[in-house]
């Protein structure tokens, strides 16, 4: 894919150019300045997280609960939560991504959910639990799923068509190149000679090539281990489900790696959803189809995403003259470390945050609820949906595909094409709310103003500032978790009340005294 097909792998190529630029006199000087800026904003973000912790002694306390746009807007998740991570993410993400998230939040929490809530007692029972999938929560989750599936399937077929087309053209040109005598109605293929740099890269890249027998033997060994061990972890996931996944996964992994090289778009989540529906329906509700589907999704996504991720990394290695064998060993070491670190971090979060994964909590884990709902849908069918939910899901499924089609027809680089929102980004706030979209749009606004004042500095130091904000806020989570596990609680609860509620609280406190 890298040498024969010469696929671009845009992210891998961009990373390689960044690394190469550091190894020039000017690049090294700029890198030192960027590290200083990153360290500065890392410290600010970390200390800001530490400062906020003092005011979070109870539920709904702290700066993150500040009703900056009013209490009514706060009830519908429209507020600025002072998150340095989201501001940094907004500075990194393209403008259209942040605007798409905000549009999705306004459409769902600003218009649709209040209107559907008014139909309580008509479209769904009024006495349902707020988190019941048969009530308003069902509309939030399944309409978001419909948009994600519409966007994912559209891009899936688009990438597959482009992949097959590119492979056909490649083999056609290869056959033309091997033709010795001129043939009627065929043009002689142009002779392409590799530059000295490309010849050198290819020579070094192939010198440390990983043997095919090692790759095949490694895959078979891992498949055998998975078939033997996973059913003991998830009894609902039978050994023959895993075997079927490992048989079909290489084909899907190849398609994903090839498509990622063309478009920079990994469809691992789409293949994971395919595993949810197929394995979940195969197992059935009476044999734990929900757990089987979700576990199968984890297996499929790990295989397919690794194919595209490694290909991106090998492209970076090819362009930076790194040894593919050394890169592979590094990946193995990193994966082995992850096997210990990831469960430890999850355990720490589980112990520190009792509401982990709950809607409205500090860490709502939105995709957990979405994927679980997909598994339930795959096992139980559409009968589990509330009234009119399937109609709305179909509308938003088609709308996601149509929006993508319009965007592709106009062209992403065209004037009007730049203003077409991204359905996948629009779907995210449907479930968790638009509060983080406001933070991200503020990050975009900061970068936009900075670019207008000094574009060269914004381009050079914008990513460093954003990375510092994200890393500092993220790292503070570790000591906060340790403090929570140790039983150390913040001393102050800062809570915001309406005037009438505050008067009642004052009256109650006065009566006690």
UniProtKB/TrEMBL annotation:
Family from the record: Belongs to the YSL (TC 2.A.67.2) family.
Gene source species: Trema orientale
Pfam families attached to this UniProt entry: OPT (PF03169)
GO molecular function: oligopeptide transmembrane transporter activity
Sorted UniProt keywords: Membrane, Transmembrane, Transmembrane helix, Transport
Membrane-spanning ranges: 95-116, 136-157, 210-233, 239-262, 274-307, 327-350, 388-406, 426-450
Classification lineage: Eukaryota, Viridiplantae, Streptophyta, Embryophyta, Tracheophyta
Name of the protein: Oligopeptide transporter
Cellular location(s): Membrane
Topological type in the membrane: Multi-pass membrane protein
InterPro entries: OPT, YSL-like
Gene Ontology CC terms: membrane
